[in-house]
Amino acid sequence: MMRAPSPLSRLTLLVLLGVAAVAGCRQRDLQPPPAAATAPEPSFRTDEQIRQEVALRLSSNPGLGGELIDVTVEDGVVRLGGSVSEFHKIVLAAGEAGNVLGVRQVLTRLQVR
């Protein structure tokens, strides 16, 4: 016949389980969670620097060869104006502008002539 465990042996078992649980915790588990994700740091590029790079990319893109596209930038928002010969060039121009560092948004007023 088995004997019932004594209160002292139950306490010892609980302490050992507690120590094992704490020992199983890794250091990173004990640290507070990271702060909520913050917005990316703002670009330190001026609107003029952004405008120049967008204009350069548009003028050097072979798919946009010969198209005259006006570029203005205000607070990182690029506005493309003018006309292009084919609709797909509007999409191409907007994509090129959107890939420039510091651009927050691209608005196009381009039209197909």
Largest sheet: 3 strands, mixed
- The general outline is elongated
Compute the separation of the termini in Å.
Answer: 98 Å
What level of helicity do the residues show? Answer: 40-55%
Number of helices: 4
Strand order within the widest beta sheet: 1-2-3
Give the amount of beta strand, in percent: 15-25%
Rg calc: 31 Å
Overall average residue pLDDT: 80
Helices and strands: which structural class? alpha+beta
CATH topology of the domain at 47-112, which one? Histidine-containing Protein, Chain: A
- The CATH architecture name of the domain at 47-112 reads 2-Layer Sandwich
- Uncertain segments: none
List keywords for this structure.
alpha+beta, Histidine-containing Protein, Chain: A
Describe what you observe in this structure:
The protein is of the alpha+beta class. 42% of the residues lie in helices and 19% in strands. It has 4 helices and 3 strands. A 3-stranded mixed β-sheet has the order 1-2-3, with helices on one face. Strand 1 and strand 2 (77-84) form a beta hairpin. The longest helix is centred in the first third of the chain and has 18 residues, at 7-24. The protein starts with 6 loop residues before the first helix and ends with a strand.
